[in-house]
Input
Amino acid sequence: MVNDILHHACTGAIIALLFSTPKKTWFYLLLGAAAALLPDVTKELFQDSLLHSLIAAPFAAALFAGILKTIFKKEPFMRIFGSFLAAFVFGHLLLDLIDNGNAIFYPFVKEELEYSIISKSTPLVWIIALAAISAGLAFKRIRLLSAAGILTILLYIGFQAAAKEMVTNALHERYPFPNAAITVFPTGEWPWEAMNWSYHARSEQFLASGDSNATGGKISETLFYFTAPGEGLRYRVEEWTKTRESFVLKCFDEQNGQIVYSNHQTASIGVPRLDGRTFRHTRRPPRFRPESGVVLKAKKAASALRRTRLVRCS
Output
C-alpha cells in the first residue's frame, strides 16, 4: 500500500515539476502528487473506475485547474491545467497500464487493459523520482534534474519492455505449440534479480509455467503438463523430443504412477518456427503406451512362447 502511494505520488510530482517556476516549486510538487493519487482516492470512496479513464482525464484536470485558479489568481490557468493533466495521466493511468492493468477507456471499454512490464512491488520508480526531486531542491535546478529523473525512469521502462520481448521470444522457441498463448509478467522488485519474470504458456494440449531471467537465457520450469481431453492435469511432461514432422512426449501419469509415452505424428497443422522448420501436432488425443515392469515381462514371455512354438513346428 505504501509502495503504491509513493509509486504514484513521486511520479506525479516529478512530472508536474517540469511546469514549475522558482517561486512555485512546492505548489507544483504537491499538485502533481495530488493529481496522481486522485484516481485511487475516488475509487476507494465511490468504488468506480471513472477517473481511471483517459476520457475523463481532461475534464477532471479542467475542473481542478479552475478551482485552483480561483485561489492562485496569478498562476496561468493553462500551466495549472497542463501540469495536473500530465501528472494525472502519466503519474497514474499509464503507470497502472504497465504494471497491473487499467480500464483506460472506461466506460466504453470496461475491461482492464495491460502491458505488464513493471512489477507492482518494485520501489525503483519512486526512488529515482524522489532522488531527482531531492537533488533538484538541494541544487536549485529543479526542472533540469526532474527532467533527468524522468529520462532515467523512461530508460528503465524501455529496458523492461525489451526484457519482456526477449523472454517472450525465448518462450515461443522453447514451447513451439500451435496456437500457444504465452503471458509474461514481471515479479521481481529489482531488474538485476536472477529470476524476475514469470510466465504461463497454454495451448489446447499443453500447460506450462515458470520463471525466467531478464534475457530469457535462463528459464526455470515449475509446471509442464500435457492436458489430454477430459484428463485435467494428469500427465506431467518430463521429456519431449522434437523432430521435423513429429514430437514424442515422455510423461509421468500422476494418477497411475507410471511413465507413459505419446507420439504425435499426424501431419495436420503446421506452424512456422524460428529456424524455418515446421512443428506439427495431431487433432485427436494421443493414445498412451504404458511402460511398466509387468507389461514388459508379459511381452517378453509372449515372445518367448511364440519362438518355442515355431521351433516345435519346424
